[in-house]
């Protein structure tokens, strides 16, 4: 195990040991969830003061001139000192689960910073100097009190992961479209009413989470996100989905549940890679026939809509394993369609379907799936007592 040869660094760590009255292990690599010091060539390059009860930032940390990793999670810090800008070699800065109310402008002096974790604090804004962090790759500010993001955030040219979910944002800056390397963006649980057209410029984006907002519509530019594999649009107030959604050829999972949708565009039939589709808790009376083109689909959630019938081609979904129809007044031709779903393992239906169940093929499927595969929210006439 490495030892500290730098006398100044040794004294600082020794003072922490005395202050905390506990041993601080020396590590070859810092652990995220436990106290420790990382040593490299006799100098301290990383320190984690996890859950140590600090209410003020230990200023002696600024004298660890070789510091690359600084972890201070689960403390009670209310501020980061201006002197933080002196840690020129800092690459990882984790201050999640504190009581921070602001970030000093000097944070912009950390030219090598690649990871900045501010989750679970009380921040209401970020300094404009955040845009100076040209090496930043991961920025997480989950569960704070942000009401806006500065336009300068668009200058983070290396950023590939951004999480600003569970804040109070009512809009996103147009400059967000400049984040050409962004692969993950979460703005879940904010107060967004619109998305900027520039969001369509995020052509490297693979996962977009915009659930639990107040969106009523989406920009057509959303269809430009050709790298997208997961799209969360659940729990908004959407009344329409743009035709361009059909351009998302790599999309594997789409959440549109808990909105005000009465229809979706025929272009959704172009989503040939889609495996998971959630449309429950909307106001659908019918679905486009093009949904039968989703040959890769494995899970389809349609609960609690106003569907009276399913698209005639739904039986062509040869890979469908889970189908949830509970809470719909289905009455037309359902049994014949389900008979063609040869891969079906789980079926959710209820008595609103008013199915007579005289179709022997349908009854055979019910028997095959058994108690584990059938999710009844009511009783259906004609079934064995085992499935009521």
Q: Secondary-structure element order, as H and E?
A: HEEEEEEEEEEEEEEEHEHE
Question: Which CATH class is shown?
Answer: Alpha Beta
Report strand %. Answer: 5-15%
Structural Rg: 27 Å
Derived from helix and strand composition plus strand pairing, the structural class reads mainly beta
In percent, how helical is the residue content?
Answer: under 10%
Describe, in short, the structure shown:
With 388 residues, the protein is mainly beta.
What does this structure look like?
This protein has about 400 residues and is mainly beta. It has one domain (about 45-385): Ribonuclease Inhibitor (Leucine-rich repeat, LRR (right-handed beta-alpha superhelix)). Helix content is about 10%, strand content about 15%. It has helices at about 5-20, 335-340, 360-375; strands spanning about 25, 35-40, 45-50, 70, 90-95, 115, 140, 160-165, 185, 205-210, 230, 255, 275-280, 300, 320-325, 345-350, 375. The chain has a 17-stranded mixed sheet. A hairpin with a 2-residue loop joins strand 2 and strand 3 (about 45-50). It is elongated and about 80 Å long. The termini are far apart.
Topology:
Blueprint: H1 7-20, E1 26-27, E2 36-40, E3 43-48, E4 69-71, E5 92-94, E6 115-117, E7 138-140, E8 161-163, E9 184-186, E10 207-209, E11 230-232, E12 253-255, E13 276-278, E14 299-301, E15 322-324, H2 334-339, E16 346-349, H3 360-373, E17 374-376
Parallel strand pairs: 1-2, 3-4, 4-5, 5-6, 6-7, 7-8, 8-9, 9-10, 10-11, 11-12, 12-13, 13-14, 14-15, 15-16, 16-17
Antiparallel strand pairs: 2-3
């Amino acid at each position: 195990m490495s030892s500290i040869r730098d006398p100044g660094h040794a004294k600082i760590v020794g003072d922490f040991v005395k202050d905390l009255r506990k041993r601080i292990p020396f590590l070859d690599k810092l652990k995220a969830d436990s106290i420790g010091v990382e040593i490299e060539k006799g100098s301290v390059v990383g320190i984690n003061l996890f859950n140590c009860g600090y209410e003020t930032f230990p200023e002696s940390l600024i004298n660890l001139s070789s510091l690359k990793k600084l972890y201070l999670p689960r403390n009670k810090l209310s501020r980061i000192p201006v002197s933080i800008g002196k840690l020129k070699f800092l690459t990882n800065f984790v201050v999640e689960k504190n009581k921070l109310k602001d970030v000093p402008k000097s944070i912009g002096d950390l030219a090598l910073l690649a990871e900045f974790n501010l989750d679970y604090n009380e921040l209401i804004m970020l300094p404009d100097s955040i845009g100076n962090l040209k090496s930043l790759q991961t920025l997480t500010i989950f569960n704070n009190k942000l009401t806006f993001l500065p336009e300068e955030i668009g200058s983070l040219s290396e950023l590939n992961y951004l999480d600003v979910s569970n804040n109070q944002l009512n809009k996103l800056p147009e400059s967000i479209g400049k984040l050409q390397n962004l692969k993950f963006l979460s703005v879940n649980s904010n107060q967004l009413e619109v998305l900027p057209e520039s969001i369509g410029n995020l052509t490297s984006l693979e996962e977009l989470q915009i659930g639990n907002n107040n969106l009523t519509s989406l920009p057509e530019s959303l269809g430009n996100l050709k790298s997208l594999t997961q799209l969360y649009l659940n729990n908004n107030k959407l009344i329409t989905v743009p035709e361009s959604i059909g351009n998302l050829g790599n999309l594997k999972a789409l959440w549109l549940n808990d909105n005000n949708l009465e229809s979706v565009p025929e272009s959704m039939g172009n989503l040939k890679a889609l495996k998971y589709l959630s449309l429950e808790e909307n106001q659908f009376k019918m679905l486009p026939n093009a949904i039968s083109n989703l040959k890769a689909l494995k899970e389809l959630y349609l609960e609690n809509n106003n569907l009276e019938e399913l698209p005639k081609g739904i039986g062509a979904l040869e890979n469908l394993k889970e189908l949830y129809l509970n809470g719909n007044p289905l009455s037309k031709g359902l049994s014949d369609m389900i008979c063609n779903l040869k891969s079906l393992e789980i079926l959710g239906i209820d008595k609103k379907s008013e199915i007579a169940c005289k179709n022997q093929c349908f009854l055979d499927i019910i028997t095959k799936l058994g108690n584990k595969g059938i999710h009844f929210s009511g009783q259906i006439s004609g079934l064995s007592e085992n499935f009521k």
